[in-house]
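Notebook entry, structure prediction.
Reason for the run: the old model in the group folder had no record of what sequence produced it. Starting over properly, with the input documented here first.
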Amino acid sequence: MKLVLDSVPLIYLAKIRFFELTNRLDVQLYTSEEVKAEVLDGKSEETSYLQEQFKTEAIKTRKGKTLQGKGLHAGEATALGLAKELGATFVSDDRLALAYAKTQEIDAMHTTFLLLRAISKKALSKKDAVAALDKMVFLGWRCDTETYARIRRKIEEHE
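New structure, fully documented this time:
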């Protein structure tokens, strides 16, 4: 399964060191050159972790065609274009970008899709997935309380 990640999934999955599991998830991870530049623009701990992921091609970088959509940032527009070109699923937490993906007939998922996939592929236990979700929230990943409760329920009910 090909996935194109936007900046927020890259940053928060890096914060919890999730990419070490991806070889067990049967996924190929991509992002656009613009998104890569966004996430590497800084000196944070996750920046060096992401640099290593790009260097080893755990996350592949490609130039994406820019899709024009009102309110889309350059990174989102190129990540969406890359997803369309690759026939991949777009992973983002931006509501506008996710809605735009639907109008372009691009499959789209939230970051937490990868936690559920990790449970399905036996790469994470449900307990560890909840801990990963909680750590993301603690580190600044945003979701309202209803969404958090819905994600927790999906994790607990996931097979």
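Summary: The longest strand covers residues 28-32.
The old model has been moved to the deprecated folder.
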